[in-house]
Amino acid sequence: MDIKSMENFLKIAELRNITRAAEALHMAQPPLSRQLMALEDELGVRLFIREKQRIYITEEGRFFKRQCEQILALVEKTKEQISEMHSGVSGTLFIGAIETVGTYMLPQWIADFKAQYPQVKYNLWSGNSDDVIARLEQGILDLALIREPFDREKYHFIPVKKEAWVVMLPKEHPLAGMPETTVPLRELRTEELIVPTRRSKEIREWFSEEGFAPNIMCEFAPLMNAVVLTEKGLGVAICPDSARYATENRAIVIKEISSPRRESSVALIWKKDVKLSGVCDKFISYIQAL
Known about the structure:
- The chain folds into 3 domains: about 5-75, Arc Repressor Mutant, subunit A (Orthogonal Bundle), CATH 1.10.10.10; about 80-160 and about 265-290, D-Maltodextrin-Binding Protein, domain 2 (3-Layer(aba) Sandwich), CATH 3.40.190.10; about 165-265, D-Maltodextrin-Binding Protein, domain 2 (3-Layer(aba) Sandwich).
- The protein is of the alpha/beta class.
- The radius of gyration is 24 Å and the shape is globular.
- It has 9 helices and 12 strands.
- Helix content is about 40%, strand content about 25%.
- The two termini are about 45 Å apart.
- The strands form 2 sheets. Strands 3, 4, 5, 6, 7, 8, 9, 10, 11 and 12 form a 10-stranded mixed β-sheet that branches. Strands 1-2 form a two-stranded antiparallel ribbon.
- The protein has helices at about 5-15, 20-25, 30-45, 60-85, 100-115, 130-135, 200-210, 225-230, 280-290, and strands at about 50, 55, 90-100, 120-125, 145, 155-170, 180-185, 190-195, 215-220, 235-240, 250-260, 265-270.
């Protein structure tokens, strides 16, 4: 198994036709078929089920596809990092971020950093904190902008900000029309709630501490699911305050949760056991100086 055979396998998986994959790869079909069979022999499993005009990927094939994508992403990242090792202020920054904070913080960070180091390029990826940390662990990312908690024994970190938890309301909801800018948690006890999957347990504990159980109608990821469901009047969503940046021009009202007020902490993290590139060190220094 080598890089080329993994790249060819991914092309077959994408097109689901060996002949068309061979054409896209500018090679003959028989050698590609033999390469696929050799790969299956090496792995000891069938990666595809063949039919006359089409092939279908197996469960083992889907798993192998995900692994190949991660391996090839890491290979590409390694090439770029090696090429930049001696330049220090050029190369590519691989940054992952939770979508709520990442969408409004990263653009300004990058704009300011680019003004100082115009040769630097960027590779950005967003997801929830678990997804981002997983890619950081795999070495696909250099830095990650996530919400606490995280393992402080494994990662260096810079506290970035604390933000309030808010409730996202449909514009016609009775609470949306109230003059108060906050909503006591107890006012949400009878509402159908839409909550982040990763924070569902935490939010249930808030309500339990106040003596009642929440009516969680839906758990969500990513954020846009909550925005659409709320706008349709299917419930009210509990989100960090930065979610408001995804609700512009939407029929939604956002109010801070009070009595008690809840906060979420955001940090930039990186692995302790990894030697970072010069451009990463520069970026970290820039964030520390903010």
